[in-house]
């Protein structure tokens, strides 16, 4: 059994569909990397979904004033996992925050290792990685299974996370799979 938890961050329609204001241009490439990792982790996979809160509070009020299209209920189509992952998600956890560590922590299990994939590298992946590292978890970020708001933001976020070595290690799908064997 592969140690650690594979976290697939926010691979949702809102980030996949090109006409969405939050589309990640390299979503398809990230999805291909995620698909390569899924068989190695089988029952050690958690998908997350970013959702809008029913009533934004604090600074989130300003955020949703900037992005009013996103103030939709949890069952809205934009919050669904991308079609290719619906059948692959035995565990899905929801959060109204960028960082998903609090909802992933109870599912970590043995190994104290979190492998991060998904979108957006420069937002939810970054926020999750930093919080998990602060909790003392070994974090691996599979760079080629992540996508940012754009290529530059993706690269910058990977660089920042890699500065946290050895707590956070930016790696590749091939390297994660090699370690899993």
Architecture overview:
The mean pLDDT is 95. The relative contact order is 0.20. A six-stranded parallel beta sheet has the order 3-2-1-4-5-6. The chain is of the alpha/beta class and 181 residues long. The chain has helices at 13-16, 27-41, 59-66, 83-86, 101-104, 121-134, 151-162, 173-180, and strands spanning 5-9, 45-50, 92-95, 113-119, 138-147, 168-171. Helix content is 38%, strand content 20%. Strand 4 (113-119), helix 6 (121-134) and strand 5 (138-147) form a beta-alpha-beta unit. It contains eight helices and six strands.
In sequence order, what are the helices and strands, one letter per element? EHHEHHEHEHEHEH
Strand order of the largest sheet: 3-2-1-4-5-6
Rounded mean pLDDT is 95
Radius of gyration (Å) = 15 Å
What are the segments in which pLDDT stays under 50 over at least 5 consecutive residues?
Answer: none
Briefly note the structural class of the backbone.
alpha/beta
Question: What's the N-to-C terminus distance?
Answer: 9 Å
Q: Which term fits the overall shape?
A: globular
Biggest sheet descriptor: 6 strands, parallel
Beta content comes to 15-25%
What share of the residues lie within helices? 25-40%
Q: How many strand segments?
A: 6
Q: Quickly count the helices.
A: 8
């Amino acid at each position: 059994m592969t140690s650690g938890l594979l976290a697939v961050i926010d691979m949702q329609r809102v980030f996949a569909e090109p006409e969405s204001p939050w589309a990640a241009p390299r979503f398809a490439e990230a999805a291909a990397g995620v698909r390569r990792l899924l068989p190695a982790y089988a029952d050690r996979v958690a998908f997350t979904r970013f959702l809008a809160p029913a009533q934004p509070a604090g600074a989130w009020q300003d955020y949703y004033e900037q992005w009013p299209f996103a103030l939709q209920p949890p069952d809205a189509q934009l919050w669904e996992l991308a079609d290719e992952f619906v059948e692959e998600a035995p565990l899905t956890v929801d959060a109204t925050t960028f960082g998903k560590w609090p909802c992933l922590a109870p599912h970590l299990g043995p190994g104290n290792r979190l492998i991060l994939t998904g979108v957006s590298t420069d937002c939810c992946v970054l926020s999750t990685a930093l919080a998990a590292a602060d909790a003392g978890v070994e974090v691996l970020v599979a760079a080629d299974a992540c996508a940012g708001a754009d290529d530059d933001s993706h690269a910058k976020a990977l660089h920042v996370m890699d500065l946290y070595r050895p707590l956070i290690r930016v790696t590749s799908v091939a390297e994660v799979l090699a370690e899993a064997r």
